[in-house]
Input
Amino acid sequence: MIRFYAPDIATSLTLPESDSQHCVRVLRMKAGDTIEVMDGKGRLYRCVLVDAHSKHAAVEIVESQELPLFWSQDVTLAVAPTKHMDRMEWMVEKLTELGVNRIIPLLCRHSERKEIKTERLEKIAVSAMKQSLKATLPEILPMTPIADVIAGFGDQQRFVCYCDDDTPRRYLGNVYRPKSSVAVMIGPEGDFSPEEITTAISVGWQPVTLGDTRLRTETAAIAACQIIHTVDLLNG
Output
């Protein structure tokens, strides 16, 4: 069954305009049809369509259930946006499918992109949430200076991935503690600056590698996310 997204469905009992159009105009659903609606906060609602309006379709909630995430820890990926937004959009889609709590566009010294609009990324995350049958939408923060990210997440495992061979690094899968909340920083194509790496390590971020192959920024983020979930699965 196709699922719809309405963040305030429990109180409004109405689908947003985009989902209303898809439901009524595209799928030709009518009053009396059963649909499933996610609120992006972890709940799935089974509803009956009571007013098939193409701009504000109204529903009656028949049943609701919580759909817990398949991972127990909090996963944050802080990633320097790529120069071409299509790569960033692809990354957000795949991270949402794999499972992540938070995505932070990271502003670094060598960042190829200094500004970013999150509206498009949020729409892609919604679509990926629906497609992957999740009910929780990852949080996508605005562009955040690396200094703010470095100073945060003190109560979690913290890892910084980079390509500088002069600093000893360990493979992420060997140092990540299973089932533990985690934040991972991924730098731009030009990598973090030496000062950024030094500062991060000095306050407890662990330098890690994702393997012997040099990866693009967006690929590195996906690889880091999957390594974390794989380690958890193997230690389940």
